[in-house]
């Protein structure tokens, strides 16, 4: 059965549609996975389309990551209606979990910085309104600092809720006892 994508122009519109809706820059492999949503997408035409969109200024490439430009957004807005509604729905379904992961990654951050006395581990967590939590810890070794950073990235909610639990606990009973 033939797909909804028929030529390189359709592929370019598909790429722009995806890039206009992705929450952050993505690498070529991720863009490839998202774009292979129809049997009419040929990998080689897709790769050429991405290259041409980059050369024409519709996409910006920074290292291995691609992002849509203003020119790409305008072109997408003008041409997306020519993409099949089925393709747009497929793209939107495939983008939802990726956008959620990209948003989470942008909102939860951990960075290890070398200092003269050890390694600073800078942890922060945001929500849609702004910063919820920022903390810097000193670790004696890079390995421990990386373990702290990885643990925070894996379970930021536990760290945040645990810290709040400790800070908001009423310790008056302990203070009253001799």
User: Can you summarize the main beta sheet?
Assistant: 3 strands, antiparallel
Instruction: Give the strand order, joined by hyphens, for the main sheet.
Output: 1-3-2
Global outline: elongated
- DSSP summary: helix tally: 8
> Element order, helices and strands?
HEHHEEHHEEEHHH
Instruction: Work out the number of β strands.
Output: 6
How far is it from the N-terminal to the C-terminal residue, by CA? 82 Å
Given as residue ranges, the uncertain stretches (5+ residues, pLDDT < 50) are: none
Q: Residue-averaged pLDDT, rounded?
A: 93
| Strand residue percentage | 15-25%
Percent range of helical residues: 55-70%
Please state the structural category: alpha+beta
Give Rg in angstroms.
Answer: 23 Å
Oligomer: single chain
